[in-house]
Design a protein that fits this description.
β3, α2 and β4 form a beta-alpha-beta unit. The protein has a 9-stranded mixed β-sheet with strand order 1-2-11-10-3-4-8-7-9, sandwiched between helices. Helices cover 23% and strands 20% of the residues. The chain has 308 residues and is of the alpha/beta class. The chain contains 6 helices and 11 strands. The protein has one domain: Rossmann fold.
Length: 308
């Protein structure tokens, strides 16, 4: 469980259409209709994971060209809504057709770059569980393209300190120069780098809902904490069951999102209300990836044990 972060945790103003006074906006319908409601230059962070056009229950599979044309339209709308100095984080995997892999981050890159956005990181999200392939190596990572929309001074907001991770060698010291012999590690921790090992949401994950491809909250929290300030607007046009909005609410940011599936929007509302009340089950940030105990039935190799 988590402690409530809002003084009036049950007093969030939640609307189903955009209103600047909303703490949270949840729209059910096409994200392009929702984005049309928002004023330009309103969101500090847009973070989302669009459908991959691989035939999941929440999407209609189409040709790759048609898919990319639709994504270009959505991306252009999002860039219009992004504040100068703000960030877009587009989390994608691969489109697969007849066994051939098409990396979506490569195919989508130009849609952002041609609008003048700057790629700051191509983050690798590595996870341990997924489909087991027999004709290629099993996919165990996806990517996050982090773009910024520079302001008039060619600047953007980034705050590393809230997302630092524990040092590997906290006792390390400078070995030369004026600080020789003094501790060299930052007491707050180190930069997490651009390869993030965070468990994906599978059946035994505390955040699991009915959504088959759900964001872990801690993945989005790292972006929310580093790329926004309190009261900033975090927007997710493909919100699913609302993990990005949950991460925003937990950290005192305003949130807005849309999804075409009414059941997912309802689940998102329930999760947001539980987050505001401090009763939503989440996997805590900084918890180490689970390592199963040795010498159990699951970790013992049956082919190396003698038969009875």
């Amino acid at each position: 469980m988590i402690a409530p972060l809002f003084a009036n945790s049950h007093g969030l103003k939640i609307g189903n259409t955009w209103d600047v006074e909303n703490d949270v906006t949840l729209f059910t319908g096409d994200c392009r209709e929702f984005l049309a409601q928002l004023p330009n230059d309103s969101a500090q962070l847009i973070v989302t994971s669009p459908p991959y056009n691989i035939g999941k229950s929440y999407e209609h599979r189409t040709s790759l060209d048609a898919y990319l044309a639709r994504e270009k339209e959505v991306i252009n709308h999002c860039i219009d809504k992004l504040k100068p100095g703000g960030s877009i984080c587009w989390q994608v995997g691969n489109h697969v057709d007849a066994g051939e892999v098409f990396p979506l981050d490569i195919l989508l890159y130009d849609f952002f770059a041609r609008r003048g956005l700057h790629l700051r990181n191509r983050i690798i999200w590595h996870f341990e569980h997924g489909l087991h392939c027999s004709q290629r190596f099993s996919g165990r990572y996806e990517t996050i393209l982090w773009f910024t929309k520079s302001d008039a001074k060619d600047e953007y907001f980034f705050n590393l300190d809230p997302v630092r991770v524990p040092q590997k060698y906290p006792g390390k010291r400078y070995f030369k120069g004026p600080n020789k012999g003094k501790p060299s590690a930052n007491p707050l921790g180190k930069n997490p780098g651009d390869v993030w090992v965070i468990p994906n949401v599978k059946h035994n994950h505390p955040e699991k809902t009915e959504h088959p491809c759900q964001f872990p909250v801690e993945l989005v929290e790292r972006l929310v904490l580093s790329l926004t300030k309190e009261a900033d607007l975090v927007l997710d046009p493909y919100m699913g069951v609302g993990s990005a909005l949950v991460a925003a609410v937990l950290n005192k940011r305003r949130a807005a999102g849309s999804d075409i599936c009414a059941n997912y929007a309802k689940t998102a509302l329930n999760r947001i209300e539980e987050a505001a009340a401090g009763v939503l089950r989440i996997r805590p940030r900084h918890r180490p990836v689970y390592e199963p105990p040795k010498n159990t039935a699951l970790t013992t190799k049956p082919w190396e044990t003698s038969s009875v």
